Each structure stands twice: as structure tokens, then as C-alpha cells.
Amino acid sequence: EDYGAALERHGLAHAVASGGTFLARREIQATRSWLRVLVNPLDDEALVFLLASRMGGVSDDGLFRLRGKAGRSPIWETAQEVELSSADAGVLAGVRASLQNAWERRGRSRLSEVICRAIEDLDFDLLMLQDGAEGRQAYANVLKLARMAEEYERGGGWRGAQGFLEHLAHMEQFGERETPAVLADEHADAVRIMSVHST
Asked: What is the mean pLDDT of residues 181-185?
């Protein structure tokens, strides 16, 4: 990412061909947090990460108020009782609506569709795309995660979002290195960033 940022600053297009940082990227962690909340709304760690991420966008003050009101209870159970700014209340309502939409379509939609719909419902796609080349890379990564979910299900994966999250956790646990999505093909006029092992 550092090399890519340096190239961007000098106006040079680049494509990451390897590196193994895909699952650690912020946009992927945010989407995985949304999936974790989909599976278990009482998962406070995932909910706070989601709300604090660009996919959510709740302010620090809003997060403080949500945590303070919840006390020892899960944030999800008390969130609607918290007095938030209109912007934070709108974000929270949007997150709830995206999850409700996914719960209502459970069993009728593929997981890849659920992920893409959540990205659109929360305008996360627009937020990423307004960030130029870096944002296009982030959006391509999220779409790659959706394709991975589709391949997981097509390959006999079971238990929907829960099973897919476990699959991703196993990839990390056993050191499987997934590269970020590639925006430029081999013949494009762009610097290719790759590890020594990929050359």
C-alpha cells in the first residue's frame, strides 16, 4: 500500500498483483464486520467497528453515547434509546435497514447479492468511488469479496454468512494469502506491484 500511495502521488497508475493484504484492508474488514452483525447483532466488537468505519460513519461522540447508554448490555439492544445527532441517527437507521433487508431475504438471495445490496444501501460504493484510484481499488476489493462468497456457496459452502466468515477466518489462520483485486490487466499502462515470490 505504501508503494502504491507513493506512485499515486506522482501520478503513476499502478496495480497490485500480489502482497497478501486483501483480508486486512479496511474496506474488507468493514464488510466482514457487517456480515458478523448480520449473523449476530449482539456482537459489539463487530458493530462498533462497522459503525466507526466508512461503511457506517458514526462520529466518535455518537459511538461514546452508544457505548455509555448500553453499559453492560449489548449496544444493539439500547441503540434506539440513545439521543444522537441527526447525522449519527441517520447512519444508525441506515445500518439497521440494511441488516433488516438482508434478514428478510435470508434463504432467498445468494450471499454475494446480500453483500452487494448492503454496499449500495449504505452508499459505501459511492463513498469509495469518490476517492479516485484508491477508492476504485477499495470498491474492486469489496466486489472481489462478494465473488469469493459466490464461489464459496457454489463450491458447496454451507451456513450462509456464518460459514463464509468461518471460511475467511480459516484462510487467515492457515496463512492463505489472498491478493487485492487487480484493476489493470497485464497489458495496461501501469506499474505492477508484486512480491519477489510472484516475479
From this structure: 65
Burial 162-171 (b: 16+ CB within 10 A, else e): ebbbeebeee
176 three-state secondary structure: coil
Cα(189)–Cα(13) distance, integer angstroms: 7
Task: Yes or no: say if 102 and 117 are a contact pair by the CB < 8 Å rule.
Answer: yes
Q: Find, among 154, 181, 150, 136, the residue nearest to 23 by Cα.
A: 181
* E runs forming strands in the chain: 14-16, 191-193
Q: How far apart are CA 169 and CA 150, in angstroms?
A: 17
178 CB burial (10 A radius; 0-12, 13-18, 19+): buried
Q: Is 196 helix (H, G, I), strand (E, B) or coil?
A: helix
- What is the C-alpha radius of gyration for the chain, rounded to an integer number of angstroms? 18
Helix (H, G, I), strand (E, B) or coil at 95: helix
pTM of the predicted protein model: 0.83
pLDDT in tens, 91-145: 999 999 999 999 998 888 999 999 999 999 999 999 999 987 778 889 999 999 9
